[in-house]
Design a protein that fits this description.
This protein is of the alpha/beta class. The chain is built from eleven helices and 19 strands. The protein has a six-stranded mixed beta sheet with strand order 6-5-4-1-15-16.
Length: 383
């Protein structure tokens, strides 16, 4: 049994006021081509198909186009589960009708009824799609008062599926969860505020392979068969060094999984640059990837007028510019009742907090003269 495991497409994503739909369409064209080349028995999408519960129309059209090409042109079944960004009701609309076309969309927990069974030359493989659900929803749906945590909710659903499958049969779990030990990224929305959202990988012990979504970095958790495919694209500058992949999984007759990570090439990469303004601009002249999405951290100490405009002339898709981050040592000097401090002291404290340095003697003298001039003008215009 051969299938492609992917997750966290986040269609409709907006990053630093930039719509990423064209970038997503570009990478999904490659994904559809990969489906045609690999000719898998199935495509598995482990949640967060959309970036928000009410996706923009262009994101819906993109998903419709991609799924149509996989199902109709490549003739490959697709299994999709809802993630915490998706609306279970909207994503799962018409699921019974679509299942007849080999598009299995499991949005709501109430749709968890039986595995999706696919056949290969060695017999059946049971795919168990577990959509993301809050513990309270699982508790109410299955009338189990003991369910209070994400781990208890997921364990209940995993046990229900396991009980439906014949002993010894090959089984694949599809889930959207934060498995303990996984490395998170800043672009992921927390699954729980004030509670414990992580779950133990031991929940999935009965399964031969676990196709996970939610964490955006492709990774293996503990045992070899529990894996995150990672997000389709980089969705934060903290992910600039990540390698984004699609997992090609093969199950042998005994259920042993062999996994190959396949890299797709984005329309634009996401990179972080750091240096002085002159260095950044000089390097751009030799940079063959100037159209990438760029974050620049400037090391210059002095003020630079129109810094963003200057960098944009070299890197047209710069999305964020900031000064080098400083230690918190200078914050101590700025604490206290600011109402009892002079303008000079306030500005000196602000300067030290932003730059990490104290004003030089000449700068202090200049500041004093400017404040004196300002105060004189203020006094002159008083009625």
């Amino acid at each position: 049994m051969r299938f492609l495991h992917t997750a966290d497409w986040h269609l409709g994503r907006i990053f630093h006021n930039t719509h990423l739909t064209e970038d997503q369409a570009y990478i999904l064209d490659q994904f559809v081509a990969l489906v045609g080349d690999v000719k898998p028995d199935a495509v598995v999408i482990a949640g967060d198909v959309y970036d928000r519960s009410v996706p923009p129309p262009e994101a819906v059209r993109l998903l419709d186009d991609v799924l149509s090409r996989i199902l109709l042109d490549c003739r490959v079944p697709v299994i999709v589960t809802a993630g915490n960004h998706d609306s279970p009701e909207r994503l799962g609309f018409g699921d019974k009708v679509m299942a007849r076309q080999k598009l299995h969309v499991i949005g709501q927990v109430s749709a968890v009824t039986q595995p999706v069974i696919l056949q290969d030359s060695h017999g059946p493989v049971y795919f168990c799609p577990i959509p993301y659900a809050e513990p309270a929803i699982v508790r109410e749906r299955f009338q189990d008062a003991a369910v209070h945590s994400h781990e208890q909710a997921l364990a209940l659903l995993a046990r229900r599926f396991d009980a439906m499958i014949p002993t010894g049969a090959r089984r694949v779990a599809i889930a959207h969860a934060f498995v303990a030990g996984g490395m998170s990224s800043e672009s992921e929305r927390p699954l729980s505020i004030g509670g414990i959202a992580t779950v133990n990988a031991a929940i999935f012990a009965p399964f031969h392979y676990v196709a996970l979504g939610h964490l955006h970095q492709a990774q293996q958790i503990g045992v070899p068969q529990v894996r995150y495919a990672g997000s389709l694209l980089k969705y934060s500058f903290a992910e600039a060094t990540h390698r984004k992949t699609v997992s090609r999984v093969e199950l042998d007759a005994s259920g042993n999984a062999t996994v190959e990570a396949i890299t797709l090439n984005p329309r634009r990469n996401m990179r972080c640059l750091e240096g002085h303004m002159a260095e950044i601009l000089a390097a751009a002249a030799r940079d063959d990837a100037r159209d990438d999405y760029i974050m620049v951290t400037l090391k210059d100490h002095g003020a630079i007028l129109h810094a963003m405009d200057k960098v944009r002339q070299a890197y047209p898709n710069i999305l964020h510019l900031e000064k080098a981050r400083l230690s918190g040592e200078s914050l101590e000097a700025s604490r206290g009742d600011h109402r009892r401090r002079s303008e000079a002291d306030l500005f000196s404290g602000f300067f030290a907090q932003v730059t990490g340095q104290q004003l030089a003697e000449a700068e202090t003298a200049t500041l004093g003269r400017l404040l004196d001039q300002f105060n004189r003008r203020e006094r002159e215009v008083e009625p």
